[in-house]
Design goal:
The chain is 28% helix and 20% strand. The chain is α/β, with parallel strands linked by helices and 232 residues long. It has one domain: Metallo-dependent phosphatases (Purple Acid Phosphatase, chain A, domain 2, 4-Layer Sandwich), CATH 3.60.21.10. Strand 5, helix 6 and strand 6 form a beta-alpha-beta unit. The structure holds manganese (II) ion.
C-alpha cells in the first residue's frame, strides 16, 4: 500500500518481535504513540519467543490508540498456510511455531486462534511505500517498481544471501527478517535492517523515520539508545 507520512508527527518502524511481549511493552511505554503518530511493525510477531499470543493482543490494542500498520512476515505466512491446509504443521512447529501454539495453550495446530487473531493475520500488508521509504519484512527486487514486488522475496529472502543495490526510486528500504546477532542495526544507507535478534538475547529495535532516532529494548526490560548507552 502507498501512504503519505507528512501528516504524522512521528513515524515509528519496529523490527521482529517474535513473541517478546515484555520488550514490546517496554518499547511502547517509552515511545507512547498517540493519534498523531504512525507505528509500522515489520512482521514476525509470532514464533520462537514465549508470548506470541500476548504480542498479537498488544498490537490489536495498539490499533485503537494510535495509527498502526502491520506488515506480514514469513512466520505469519507460515501459520496462515498451515491453517489453510496449504502447508503441513510440522515444519512450522519446528521453525518456532511450537512456542506460539504453547502461548495459546493449544496442543494441535488447528482451530486454536481466536477470530480476532485470525483477522489480524489475514489483514497484514505485504509492504508500505511512502514518499521517501519502502517498508517490508525481508527484501526487495531493485529491478522492479515497489508496486510489483514478488511476495516471496518480500517475506523470505535473507540479506546474507545478497544485499540488493539501491532502488532506482532513491527511496530508503526498511526491513527486518535477517537477524543481526550482535544486536546492532544494519544501516547501509539505502537499506536498513531492524531485526536485532530480540528473542535470541539481542534487542527489539524501533526507528523514528523522520529523525532516524533509534532505541532498543531487551526481553529482560533493558533499553539503550543509538550510542549503545544503557538507560534505566
Ligand atoms: Mn522473518
Amino acid at each position: 500500500m502507498y501512504l503519505e507520512l507528512k501528516k504524522y508527527r512521528s513515524v515509528y518502524a519496529i523490527g521482529d518481535i517474535h513473541g517478546c511481549r515484555r520488550a514490546l511493552d517496554g518499547l511502547l511505554e517509552y515511545i507512547k504513540p498517540d493519534q498523531s503518530d504512525l507505528v509500522i511493525t515489520l512482521g514476525d510477531y509470532i514464533d520462537r519467543g514465549d508470548d506470541s499470543r500476548g504480542v498479537i493482543d498488544r498490537l490489536l490494542e495498539l490499533s485503537h490508540t494510535t495509527n498502526w500498520l502491520g506488515i506480514r512476515g514469513n512466520h505469519e505466512q507460515m501459520l496462515l498456510n498451515v491453517l489453510e491446509g496449504a502447508m503441513k504443521a510440522k515444519p512450522w512447529l519446528d521453525y518456532g511455531g511450537a512456542a506460539t501454539l504453547n502461548s495459546y495453550g493449544a496442543s494441535k495446530a488447528k482451530d486454536f486462534l481466536p477470530e480476532s487473531h485470525l483477522e489480524f493475520l489475514v489483514e497484514l500488508e505485504d509492504s508500505v511505500e511512502t514518499e521517501d521509504f519502502f517498508l517490508t519484512h525481508a527484501c526487495y527486487d531493485p529491478a522492479a517498481p515497489f508496486s510489483e514486488q514478488p511476495a516471496e522475496l518480500l517475506r523470505w529472502r535473507h540479506l546474507y544471501e545478497e544485499i540488493p543495490v539501491a532502488h532506482p526510486s532513491g527511496k530508503t528500504v526498511i526491513v527486518g527478517h535477517t537477524p543481526s546477532r550482535d544486536g546492532e542495526v544494519l544501516d547501509l544507507g539505502h537499506i536498513v535492517c531492524l531485526d536485532t535478534y530480540c528473542h535470541g538475547g539481542g534487542w527489539l529495535s524501533v526507528m523514528e523515520l523522520k529523525s532516524r532516532a533509534l532505541w532498543q529494548f531487551s526481553k529482560w526490560g533493558k533499553k539503550r539508545n543509538t550510542n549503545g548507552f544503557l538507560v534505566s
